Amino acid sequence: MGTAELYDPATGSWGNAGSLATARDSHTATLLSSGEVLAAAGFSGSRYLSSAELYDPATGSWSSTGSLVTARTNHTATLLPSGKMLAAAGFGGSGYLSSAELYDPGTIVTATSASGRGSVNGVGDQATFNFHVSLSGDQASGSLTYSDPAAVVSFSRAKVRTLTFTGTTATFGGNARLGDGSRVTYSVNVSDNSSDGSSDTFTISLSNGYSAGGTLTSGDIQIQ
Question: Which of 29, 62, 64, 144 pairs as cysteine with 131 (C-beta 3.0–4.6 A)?
């Protein structure tokens, strides 16, 4: 499950603490020097995860943060005196792991580009996508090609007008001309949740009411 709860020792009761973007188990949860909680890696369904999320008790919300280099589960997590967190060993797609990684909450670099191609569940069939977007200052650029044959929705190299990043998630949008000549605006949300694309997500909505997406059925999304 992706839900979280807070225990109040003063009242002996539990309360809702929001939901993680990715349901996971066998992960680690580490209290950082900032007071935030870092939930890192783990397992979801049949996928090893490299993604990580931060819980902010001031807002009661979760947000994505930098991903581990290696997807792992049943690892250890140790907060160091420097404020960094050490994730060590565990189990991954290649078997038992001997590698270790450091998370530095003070040196997170905001992403400036995203790219991806693959397929998701469309309307009654598979839909395919291909995009590359980037941000230079406040200026967004890039294009999106999308096709859902069963819904008779397709467009090619639609320009990107807006783009924002939140951790390992990107949201972008613009205008597109469909195959029948009609014009629509589109909004896309993508998440880079794994190193191999197995738990990455792509969702799209159009101003004509069309929407589709979810976890990729094939392909990969990279946010850098």
Answer: 144
Q: What is the pLDDT of residues 3-14, one digit of tens each?
A: 999 888 889 899
The answer on 80 and 157 residing in a single domain is: no
Burial profile 124-135: b = 16 or more Cβ within 10 angstroms, e = fewer: eebbbbbbbbbb
For 122, the domain range is 113-223
Q: What angle do CA 141, 213, 192 make, to 5 degrees?
A: 60
Identity of the residue numbered 26: S
Report residue 106 as tokens.
Answer: 């003070």
How far lies 106's CA from each of 48, 103, 110, 158, in Å?
26, 9, 12, 36
Judge whether 204 lies within some domain.
yes
Residue 18, sorted as left (phi over 0), alpha (psi -120 to 50) or beta, turns out to be: left
Length of the chain equals 224
| Residue 183 identity | R
**Predicted confidence (pLDDT) per residue in 162-216, tens digit:** 999 887 889 999 999 999 999 999 999 999 888 788 889 999 999 999 999 999 9
Chain centre to alpha carbon of residue 129: 17
Tens-digit pLDDT profile for residues 171-186:
999 999 999 999 999 9
Does the reported pTM lie above 0.70? no
Nearest to 52 by CA among 188, 199, 187: 199
The verdict on 96 and 127 lying in the same domain is no
Mark whether 31 and 92 lie in a shared domain. Answer: yes
Among candidates 52, 47, 79, 72, which has minimal Cα distance to 220? 47
